[in-house]
Amino acid sequence: MVEQVKKANYTLVVALCLFASMGGFLFGYDTGTIGGLLNMQNFKEHFGSYSPASGYYFSNVRTGLIVAVVSIGCCIGCLVSGNMADRIGRRGSIIVWTVVYAIGIVIQISASWAWYQIMIGRIIAGGGIGALSTLVPMYQSETCPKQLRGILVSSFQLFITLGILIGYCVVKATEGQASTSAWRIPLGICFIWAGVLGIGMVFMPESPRYLLKQGDQSASTNSLAKIYATSPDDPLIQEEVKEIAEGIEREEAEGTASWGECFTGKPKMFRRLLIGLGVMILQQLTGANFFFYYGNSIFQSVGIDDSYITAIILGAVNFVSTIPALFLVQYFGRRILLIVGAVWMFIWFMVFASMGTFHDSSDANVGRVMIAAACMFILGFATTWAPLAWVIVAETYPIRVRSKAMGIATSGNWMMNFLISFFTPFITSAIGYRYGYVFAACCLFAAFFVFFLVPETKGRSLEEVDELYAAGVPAWRSANWDPQTGPHGKNNGLEFQHKEVVRGDSAATV
To answer: Cross-referenced PANTHER family, in alphabetical order (predicted)?
Structure first.
């Protein structure tokens, strides 16, 4: 029976979580297309301004609004989706917000001359994207086994990068058309991705933890058995349902969760909220989007003039670099990757900013060094902070307040995304490559933030994470902590614990 469950972990569970990651693909595809649309001549003629001297163009303000306004919708979607997820379930909420996203696309694709219609459509579509950025990791973390949670929740970021790359390729394929098809085709393709996710989720099982929280133990057991491809009577299923139920009972003994409990609840909810919010904000402050703003000028300095090719190159590095992260997170855990990644990004941002500030960036050799620095930064970001921020938030909160707390943390990410997206064109116009030093400092701060505040949650059930916080284990000792041997583990947490969990006639080393 153990072998059957193990097989299910690597087939049905993986397929389920990868499919749900299509929610990240929607966000990535939007990111990958909007920059290309703004550069299309036909799009400029319909929604830009006109000057006799320079022709059709987008001002910094209009560009900032069209690009960044989606983050406002995302922020709203994050906050609103939590209550819906508690009312109609994780699966149903994903379906509803996919429809909201599609409505936003309809508004955009039907626009003819009013640029504000594009903006309104992006706000509504952003609501769907933001909600899915909360709901999908939540659904994945509550559905997959703890042994696979890191790699499967990280797949959300992998699909974001895949969406970015596909978006770049689509706009490259259509940008040469002189008609509105140049920008309406990329927008219309969004319906394919939304349809796949929305229709497919109808056939996915609901979160077992959500069902049990609603008091439906039978449905929860059946859902868990379906996920593991085994019988509801399997002792492993019964054991896991019991563990989930005990955790929920402890949480519900204190009554119905409120928004205020995200700040005052136990165990240590305010600290946990700040950790999740901090990680999500710092993910944006690492400055990954800075390289996409400067990508065109950097690559032009070494003879690449096609901005669409530039975007595809950066997108390809981003996507390929994310793949190893799915496996690194299972081997090294969360903390070490986040710390090493932050230091790595700090180094390469310093190289990039220094070369651009103190050397002639139009020099081919300087440009090559800056390109290398940009690619090395993206490699570090894609393998560490890009996927792991979503993993940390998905693992940090108890089910009692998870939907609300994840909504707050994720909305912080989107709000910072908006601020960076909107103000970066103005800041870079004023201080140029020195802007990179700001992001380098943020990366260095992020390393210290993780070391002192973010505990290791690799291989722990969501219920054990609660115990970890309740025990008050210092973050730097959390990797050695064992819930069965006290707040600091055996020998004050100075050695790893080794235990064997016997299931049926087999023993598994944890």
So the answer is: GALACTOSE TRANSPORTER-RELATED, PLASTIDIC GLUCOSE TRANSPORTER 4
